[in-house]
TrEMBL record:
Gene Ontology biological-process entries: carbohydrate metabolic process
The organism's taxonomic lineage, starting at the top: Eukaryota, Viridiplantae, Streptophyta, Embryophyta, Tracheophyta
Protein name: Beta-fructofuranosidase
Molecular function GO labels: hydrolase activity, hydrolyzing O-glycosyl compounds
CDD domains assigned: GH32_Fruct1-like
Domain of life: Eukaryota
Boundaries of every Glycosyl hydrolase family 32 C-terminal domain copy: 370-565
A Pfam family the protein falls into: Glyco_hydro_32N
Keywords linked to the UniProt accession: Glycosidase, Hydrolase, Signal
Length: 586
C-alpha cells in the first residue's frame, strides 16, 4: 500500500507542533524525536507490534522448518511511513515472536526507492521464494522482483538474496506504472504453469493482472486480467485462494480439487476506501477466469473481511495444521504527532483462520487456537437475565487485556424495531452512528461495554441491534468508538456491519479480544468482524471495566459468558543477531 495522504499530515504536524520548516532534511531528523518519557498505555499485550517505529502491511507469511515467518512493511527509522523495508519475525505458535534483521531492503536499481508488499510461495523441494514490488525511481515506477534465501539450512531464513536478473516483471505501455504492485502467492496450474496476480488500475477500473510462468523467472502477462471492476479505483494487495466446501481444513493455494468441492476467494484492498473486500466465486483453471457467485458484489458495496480498522490482509496455507491463516494491518487512529511521541505505530491483527460459512454466502473468521494459551484467570456468568437498561459488570479479570466469549439469547423477536427501508443497506456505519448503544431499542442494543471507565465517561460498546424488515430480521453489529476516549481530535468512527445470521434458535454470540488500544470482535462465530483502535484516558490498566448490557425493551439472557485475563505474548523486540540466535528448539 502507499499512503499518499500521509506526507501532508506529516508536514502539518511538524509545521504546527514543532515550528520547523517542512523539508526532507528536517523531516528525517525529526524521526528520531520519538520521546522516551511517554507513558506507554496504548501498547498492546498480545497483538503483534514493535517496540519502536512504524509497521504496516503483513507480507509473505510462510511456514518453514518449524517456524512461522511473518514479514511486514517496516520503517526502521521512525514511527511514520517512510524508508520501507521488509521487517521479519519468526514464531513457533503464531503468538510469541522473535524479531530478526530486516529481510529485504532497498539496495539495487530495481528497488532503490522502496521494497513494498509481496508474497511468498514455497516451490517444490521446500524452497521458499518471495515476490515483492520494487520502486525504481522518484516517480514511483513499480516493478516486480524476487528474493531467495541465502541459506536453506537456516530455519530462520535470516538472509535473502535479490539476484541480478531482477526485475522479473515490468509494466507494459498500456499500464499505469505507479499502480502496479503487491504480487500474490503463486499457484501451479495443471498446465504446468505458475500463475500470480498483481494489483492495479486502468483509469478508475480496479484490476488484478494475471501473469504466467513455467520456470518462475520468465513471466508473461495474460491477455485478460483475472478480474476487474469499473469505478473501484486502485486494487492493492490482492489475495486469491481456494476454500473447501466440505470439512474444516484450509487448502493450499495450488489445490484444485473437483470444481464442485471448492470455491475461490478474491480479496482486494481498495486504496480509495482503505478497506479489504472479497467475493466468493468459481475459478476456471483452463481459461484462467474467475467469476464471482451470483449476489456477490465487487468493490465498495461488497463483503468485507472486517468492518473496522483492517487493511492489506494477506493469507497463507499452514501445512502443519492444514488451515488457511490471515493477518491484516490495523493502523493507529490517533494523530501522527501522537505516533511520533509514543515512538511506534501499527499493529497486526490476531491471525485468523478462514473457512467458508456452511451457508456458502460468506467466510467465517476465527482467532487461531494458539491464542487460547494466553488465557489466565477466568470468570463465568450463566443464565443471567438483563432487563431494559441493565448492566452487569464482569469482575475478576484484567478488563484492559482480556478475551471474552458470550452467547446472548432472547425469547422472541416481537419487540424488534422496524427496519426502515429508506436506510442505505450498505451503510451500516451510518445506522450505527444514529442508533448507538444509548439509543433505546426493542431487541437490543445488547452486547459488551469494553474499555469502560468507572463512571462510563469512556467506553467502547460492541453490540447488536435486531430489526424487523418485511420478510426477515436484520441484525446490525456495531463497534462504536465515539465515546472511547475523552481525548479530542482522534479518529472515532462508529464502525458497523450487518450479520447474515439465522435467528431461529434465538441466539447471538460475540467474542471480543480487548487489548489496551484495540478491540477486535467476532460476531456470530466470525460472520461479521470489527476491529477498533481506541485510546481511552481513564479506562486504562486496572481502571478499565467490562460490562454486558442491554438497552432494549426485550429482556436479554446472557446464556453463557466466559472471560479471561490474557497474559502478554512474548514479542522479542530486540533484534536477534546471528551470534545471539536462539536454537530452533527453543
Ligand atoms: C519523472 O517524471 C517527470 C515528469 O513526467 C520526468 O520529467 C522525469 O524524467 C521522470 N523521472 C524518471 C526517473 O523517469
Ligand atoms: C495511475 O495510478 C496513480 C496511483 O493510483 C493515480 O494517482 C494516477 O491518477 C493514475 N494515472 C492514470 C492515468 O490513471
Ligand atoms: C438507554 O436508553 C435511554 C433512552 O435512549 C438512555 O437515556 C439511556 O442512557 C440508555 N442507557 C444505557 C445504559 O445506555
Ligand atoms: C487509518 O487511519 C485512519 C485515521 O487517520 C484513516 O482514516 C484510515 O484511512 C487509515 N487506514 C489505512 C488503511 O490507512
Amino acid at each position: 500500500m502507499f499512503p499518499w495522504v500521509l506526507l501532508e499530515f506529516l508536514l502539518f504536524c511538524f509545521a504546527t507542533n514543532y515550528g520547523v520548516e517542512a523539508s526532507h532534511e528536517v523531516y528525517t531528523s525529526l524521526q528520531s524525536l520519538s520521546a522516551v518519557n511517554v507513558k506507554q498505555v496504548y501498547r498492546t499485550g498480545f497483538h503483534f507490534h514493535l517496540e519502536k517505529n512504524w509497521i504496516n502491511d503483513p507480507n509473505g507469511p510462510l511456514y518453514y522448518k518449524g517456524f512461522y515467518h511473518l514479514f511486514y512493511q517496516y520503517n526502521p527509522e521512525g514511527a511514520v511511513w517512510r524508508n520501507i523495508v521488509w521487517g521479519h519475525s519468526v514464531s513457533k505458535d503464531l503468538i510469541n515472536w522473535k524479531k530478526l534483521e530486516p529481510a529485504i531492503f532497498p539496495s539495487k536499481t530495481f528497488d532503490k526507492y522502496g521494497c513494498w508488499s509481496g508474497s511468498a510461495t514455497v516451490l517444490p523441494g521446500n524452497k521458499p521464494i518471495i515476490l515483492y514490488t520494487g520502486v525504481v525511481d522518484e516517480n514511483i515506477t513499480e516493478v516486480q522482483n524476487y528474493a531467495v534465501p541465502a541459506d536453506y539450512s537456516d530455519p530462520y531464513l535470516r538472509k535473502w538474496i535479490k539476484p541480478d536478473n531482477n526485475p522479473l516483471i515490468v509494466a507494459d505501455e498500456s499500464m499505469n506504472t505507479t499502480a502496479f504492485r503487491d504480487p500474490t502467492t503463486a499457484w501451479l496450474g495443471q498446465d504446468g504453469r505458475w500463475k500470480i496476480l498483481v494489483g492495479g488500475r486502468r483509469k478508475h477500473r480496479g484490476i488484478v493482472f494475471l501473469y504466467r510462468s513455467r520456470d518462475f523467472m520468465n513471466w508473461v502477462k495474460a491477455k485478460h486480467p483475472l478480474h476487474s471492476c469499473a469505478n473501484t479505483g486502485n486494487w492493492e494487495c490482492p489475495d486469491f485462494f481456494p476454500v473447501s466446501l466440505h470439512g474444516t481444513n484450509g487448502l493450499d493455494t495450488s489445490s484444485l480439487m473437483e470444481e464442485n468441492k471448492i470455491k475461490h476467494v478474491l480479496k482486494v484492498s481498495l486504496d480509495e476506501t482503505r478497506y479489504d473486500y472479497y467475493t466468493l466465486g468459481t475459478y476456471f483453471p483452463q481459461k484462467d477466469r474467475y467469476i464471482p457467485d451470483k449476489n456477490m458484489v465487487d468493490g465498495l458495496r461488497g463483503l468485507r473481511y472486517d468492518y473496522g480498522d483492517f487493511y492489506a490482509s494477506k493469507s497463507f496455507f499452514d501445512p502443519i495444521k492444514k488451515r488457511r491463516i490471515m493477518w491484516a494491518w490495523a493502523n493507529e487512529s490517533d494523530t501522527v504527532c501522537d505516533d511520533l511521541r509514543k515512538g511506534w505505530a501499527g499493529i497486526q491483527t490476531i491471525p485468523r483462520t478462514i473457512l467458508i460459512d456452511p451457508n456458502g454466502r460468506q467466510l467465517l473468521q476465527w482467532p487461531v487456537e494458539e491464542l487460547e494459551t494466553l488465557r489466565r484467570e477466568k470468570v463465568e456468568l450463566r443464565e443471567k437475565k438483563l432487563k431494559k437498561g441493565e448492566h452487569v459488570e464482569v469482575k475478576g479479570i484484567t478488563a484492559a487485556q482480556a478475551d471474552v466469549e458470550v452467547t446472548f439469547s432472547f425469547h422472541c423477536l416481537d419487540k424488534a424495531e422496524k427496519y426502515d427501508s429508506s436506510w442505505d443497506e450498505h451503510d451500516a456505519q451510518k445506522l450505527c452512528s444514529q442508533k448507538g448503544s444509548t439509543v433505546q431499542g426493542g431487541v437490543g442494543p445488547f452486547g459488551l461495554l469494553t474499555l469502560a471507565s468507572h463512571d462510563l465517561k469512556e467506553y467502547t460498546p460492541v453490540f447488536f441491534r435486531i430489526f424487523k424488515a418485511n420478510s426477515k430480521h436484520v441484525v446490525l453489529m456495531c463497534s462504536d468508538e465515539s465515546s472511547s476516549s475523552l481525548e479530542e481530535g482522534l479518529y472515532k468512527p462508529s464502525f458497523a456491519g450487518f450479520v447474515d445470521v439465522d435467528l431461529t434458535d434465538k441466539k447471538l454470540s460475540l467474542r471480543s479480544l480487548i487489548d489496551h488500544s484495540v478491540v477486535e470482535s467476532f460476531g456470530a462465530g466470525g460472520k461479521t468482524c470489527i476491529t477498533s483502535r481506541v485510546y481511552p484516558t481513564l479506562a486504562i490498566y486496572e481502571n478499565a471495566h467490562l460490562h454486558a448490557f442491554t438497552n432494549g425493551t426485550a429482556t436479554i439472557i446472557i446464556e453463557k459468558l466466559d472471560a479471561w485475563s490474557m497474559k502478554s505474548s512474548r514479542i522479542m523486540l530486540i533484534c536477534m543477531h546471528s551470534t545471539t540466535a536462539l536454537k530452533p528448539s527453543e
